[in-house]
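Entry 14. Structure prediction run on the chain below.
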Amino acid sequence: MDDEMKAIILGVIERAPQWIRHDLAAKDAATRARAEETLAAMIADVLGNGNAGSPGNS
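Output returned:
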């Protein structure tokens, strides 16, 4: 993984909504899984579309 990809992923994580951050620490496995899947989808979208801007900007 190169530095550019790391920066893109870090940018997505930095902009993650508060509910995702909260749910990633949840004790409930289903809640945690939903947050993990959402964050993974956000990262995949940015990597797939090459859009390092804010979420929702296509």
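The helical segments are 3-14, 18-24, 29-49.
Filed with the rest of this week's runs.
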